[in-house]
Structure formats: C-alpha cells, structure tokens
Amino acid sequence: MDHDVVVVGAGPAGSTAAKYLSDNGVDTLLVDKEEFPRDKPCGGGLPTRVMQRYPYINQFIDSISYGSVTYSSSMRYRLVVVRDKPLLCMIKRKVFDHELVKVAVESGVNLAEGRSVIDVKKNNENMLVVLDSGEEVKTRLVIGCDGVNSLVADRMHLKTGDPRYCVCVYQEVPLDEAVIEQYFTDKRLTYIFIKILGLTGYGWIFPKKNSVNVGIGEFELSGTTSTTKHNLKHVYIRFVNLLKNERILPEEVSPEICRGGVLPVFPLPKTYGDNTLLCGDAAGFINPITGEGIYYAMTSGRLAAETALEAVKNHDASAVFLSRYQRRWMNEFGRDLISLGRFNNQWGKKTEKIVRLLCRDRKLARLTIGVTGGQLSFSKWKYALMLRYLYASIKDKLKKEEEK
Predict the structure, then answer these.
(1) Residue 170 or residue 162, greater confidence
(2) Average of per-residue pLDDT values in the chain
C-alpha cells in the first residue's frame, strides 16, 4: 500500500481531513492540482462557529465583523444590526487555504501539489489514484474533496439526483484601512442586498482589514432548467455603480475586474461508496440560502477522517462500513441543510415584506440572522422562527389597518 488514505483536493475540507488522519497515525497523501498559495472563488465570510470548533484557525482570520446592514430589493428598507460580539469572521482564501495546508503538512501529511488526479478506480479491495504524471498510487480509501466538479464523485458514480447551483461574480478590492473605516466603520459592517436588481439571490460587501470583497450570487431554484437568468457580469457592473452612486462603496472600486464561480447548493443523495467518501463542495455541502460552505467543508472533512480512521483500523472500507459517515454528517448539519433547502425557492418570491418585518421586529431579526449566520441550528429553531414571522406579519397588518 503506497498510502493508507489519499485525499483529493487541498481546500478546507481536504486539509482538515488530512490533518486529523495524520494526527492519528494514518499515512495520508494530500493531492491538489494547484500549487499553493492559490485563490478560490469566495466572499470570505465565515460564521463564528468555525473559530469556536477549530480554534487553531484563529491566527488565519483577516478581520472580524461586528454588525451588518441588510437592504430590501427596492433599498427602501434597511436593517442595521451592530453588536459587541463577532457576527462574522473574514478571511482571504489565498491565505487561509495555504495556512491550512501548512498545518496539515506540519502534522505529517504527505503533500503532492501541482499534481492533477486524472482517474480513480477500484483495484480489488483497494483503490488506484492515477496522477497526470502517469503514476498510480495504491490506497485503501479515497476522500474526495475536489470541488463542485468532483472527479472522485464522477468516477465512483455518486453524482446522482437533481443538482442545483449558485452562480456568483465577485472581486477582492484592495483599499486603504482609513477608507475602509470611513465606509464600514471600525466594526467592519457587512452589507447584504436582498434580491438586488431582480436577482434570485443577493449582493454583498464583506469589508476586511485592507480590502473589501464585493459580489453577487444567483441561485438556481428547484424545478428550473437554467443556472441563471441574467448575464451576471452585466448585473454586477450595474450593482457596483449603484452602490457607488449611493455612496455605499468608494469610487476606487472598478466593476470591470471581476471573477466568477459556481457552487452546489444541495447535498448529494449519497456521499460514500466502496473505499470512497466525499466532503465539502464535492458532496454539495453549502448553505442553500447564503452560499457559505467553509464550516461544512471543515466539519465534513473531520467527520470523513474519523470514519476513514475507523475503516483503516478495522480493515474494512466497504460501502456498508463507510455509510456511518452519512449518518454523522446528517446528525451534525445535514438536517439544517435539507430544511434550509426547502426554503431555497423563497429567492423566487417577493422579499420586500420580509425585510420590512425584520426592521420592525427585532426578535425576528435576531432569529433570522442567527439562523442564516450559522449561530443557530435552523432545524431546531425553524418553528420558533415561523411563529415569530407569523406574529410579526399579524402585527404589521394591524398597524397598516390603524394607519388607514
């Protein structure tokens, strides 16, 4: 056996899985087609629970946001939340991913960067991972952390079901810290623009230490046939110019220099097979309302590593044995993702009322921000959220009747 486990993809999921395995004495190879540091499409906003669960990443945090400003689609309603506790952690993926890889290597992981995996196939009771150099690596188990277009998922026939995606356009704009504080204060207030310019999604501004990440994302709704209804680059240019006209963004931000990306927004029906586990984007672990995925990537990587460790110790990498991984992630965060996925079609409906209610009912606002920001479990709090929304709607209706 060349390595006990091969992890394909060295993003947050892959690095976390490889680190945990190596920490527990498992001979692990981590492979990535890119050389580090490299960049990835990402807004860079992390829920605070990532820091709480993986405290070793605290040193890689770029800055912290202590509040948010949320606009309705017409920009008529604006919800401002400022707090003393952190709301979101901000990272730069080029730095963050590189540091996670270094942590994994320091734990004893074997790293093969700049090496593409071109095939994965069964070899009796084991697996062969074929690299672009022609080298074949024999292993007991493969953990696929290779993104939305996962080769591992494809070769192991796990890409089934009806996939849905989020398409985004964004840019990371360097700015002087004084300019950032002028526009976003020392609290580093994040900005969210619900269904701006007719998107079935939202726009964002994530201020960091010496840059801002500005972007828009549009979700493919269940039952639709196209990934996006708009030319997102054209919408993005309009979006940035609108924010500059409203003096929300400084004039230095040029919308012409932007990048795009695609994210899955619903888990695959099956994330395991003989000698195979899938994590992160490769498994479809993304918040289907916000598009955030790093918490799910790192947590699924950890859970996959725990399962792989048991498989190595028990000399059993069969699908039956590895099925415990699916139960683990389902108990950890799967119910939240599936419940949130049922609300994905809300992006196709009118949301002006929702933001108005959030502005008028602070308890509803706290619950909504807690659920979407990852501080609260949606599956545990959804009924409280729905009851509060009903209460706020009735109260809003009575107020309108009084004003007539």
Answers:
(1) 170
(2) 92
